[in-house]
Amino acid sequence: MLEQRVQILEQKIDRIDSALQRLEPAIRDLASDNKDFRKQLSDVSVRMAGLEGQFKAMPTALQLFAALITTWAAGAAIVFTLVRFVK
Predict the structure, then answer these.
(1) How far are the Cα atoms of 40, 43, 54 from residue 48, in angstroms, in the given order?
(2) Among 70, 51, 50, 54, which Cα is nearest to 62's?
(3) What global pTM score does this model have?
(4) What angle do CA 51, 44, 59 make, to 5 degrees?
(5) Distance of CA 57 to CAs 34, 45, 51, 60, Å?
(6) What does the alpha-carbon distance between residue 26 and residue 15 come to, in Å, rounded to a whole number?
(7) CA 79 to CA 67: how far, in whole Å?
(8) CA of 38: how far to CAs of 66, 71, 77, in Å?
(9) pLDDT digits (tens, 9 = 90+) for 34-80
(10) How far apart are CA 65 and CA 80, in angstroms?
């Protein structure tokens, strides 16, 4: 009776061992794929940081509006001065 139980356990251990041997290469492949994925993720992170810097450097709508009004005011002042001196 005990020998039969031991034999069943040995068979199960053998099946588990063979399954682990089949899974070992797959696990190694996953580990190497994980390294590639992490490298790609870090590259994306660096690119996103660059884009974030570019977006921070862009002027806001208020700054663009102020620049437009300032340019128009300077142009109007030049035209007013030229009209005044040309007469």
Answers:
(1) 12, 9, 10
(2) 70
(3) 0.42
(4) 5
(5) 35, 19, 10, 9
(6) 17
(7) 18
(8) 45, 49, 59
(9) 888 888 888 888 899 888 888 888 999 999 999 999 999 999 999 99
(10) 22
